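Repro:
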Amino acid sequence: MKSAAVATILLLTMTGAADAGQASKRDAGSCLVEVLRSEELPIGPLFHHTIKATLLVTPPDMPPFERTVYKVITWQEPPPRQGQRMRIDCDPAALSSFSLF
């Protein structure tokens, strides 16, 4: 379950295809994830970038929390941008260990 959520977040963040305004995605088990900050770090393998992103995760009926995640992407992939929002499925019991990777 965790790896499926991670893959979904990564895919939606990198492609920008998520539309948080769709009512069909707003169910009780979905969290709103917003990119607060994103930067490319000067480390990583050849033709890759390391991305550091700070996310604001808002689970249903719980206070929001921030998480900083790191990901190595190819140089062709667009990094997540500040202000991007998406809804993902999340497990309220496992939010203390929330991560993208």
